[in-house]
Amino acid sequence: MSLLTLSVCFSLFSSSLSPHPNTAKKSGCFKVNDCKCIMKDGSGVISLKAMGDVDGFLGRLKPVPADGMPADAEVLLSFSPCQHFSQPEDVTGSDCTNVAACLIVRYHGLNSHYINYGRHEGNEFHYNHTLKMLSVSYFAHDERPMTVVHYHCNPNQSMSVIRVQSLSMEEPLHIWVESPCACLNACAMGDLGLGTIFLIILSLSAAAYFVLGSCALRPFRSSSGVQISPEHSVWCTTCSLCTERRPARRHYADMTHSEQ
Ligand SMILES: *[C@@H]1O[C@H](CO)[C@@H](O)[C@H](O)[C@H]1NC(C)=O
Ligand SMILES: *[C@@H]1O[C@H](CO)[C@@H](O)[C@H](O)[C@H]1NC(C)=O
């Protein structure tokens, strides 16, 4: 709810900023955080959070085809769309510390090199409405992206499927993901925070308070200004409903007598 409001505000803001409103500029999405983007036209949200497995991985030590590598070398990839990870887990200060993608090169099945292939921080989102595909670029050390992941919306897929392009030295590593979570608003509801739910409950009870209050309270003018007091009939009927269920009905009758 709050996200949709935010997106409407955002698109109003951006259209008022640009002197020539351009419909082509309306396509694409704004990055909300490293794991989420919101459509510029306000049509929805894509969250990468639910895309991985229970540990957040989309691929873990997945073999990558590599040209021009020695025959006894093995190239493996680990990738997590939203959750930072470190590999190897028991070693501190490896190049793959708190990364999104890590490339592991093994020689003779013994020596392993861990190469940072992109972090979540500073990633860039591009959405193509025609292809229904969100491309996210992950950077490691310089301006050139190391990994570009193409998340394609596929509602037929029950879980995310990953395909890794052959590794080359000139180009970033491209990964294609077929996932129902790449569709607009498909997996965004799951990560509503407790705070958001609390705020929704709070605003609903505030609304209920004012609606009930305006029915039950009657404003009237007095010498000291406008006063609001409970509508007589509302509280009296509530009270009598309560007291009539209890055997002590005489009590109520006595009280009304003494008031008069
Ligand atoms: C989306 O993809 C299509 C097909 O590749 C391409 O022609 C079009 O220019 C892309 N749109 C954007 C906004 O990148
Ligand atoms: C999903 O399945 C339907 C029916 O089998 C098919 O027509 C459609 O092209 C599929 N969509 C994708 C994105 O594969």
From TrEMBL:
Q: Which SUPFAM superfamilies match?
A: Mannose 6-phosphate receptor domain (SSF50911)
Q: Which residues cross the membrane?
A: 192-212
**Out of the domains of life, which is the source?**
Eukaryota
The entry's keywords: Membrane, Signal, Transmembrane, Transmembrane helix
- This protein is called what? Uncharacterized protein LOC114441110
Q: Which GO terms describe its cellular component?
A: trans-Golgi network
InterPro entries in alphabetical order: Man6P_isomerase_rcpt-bd_dom_sf
Q: Which range is the signal sequence, renumbered to this chain?
A: 1-18
Q: From what organism does this protein derive?
A: Parambassis ranga (Indian glassy fish)
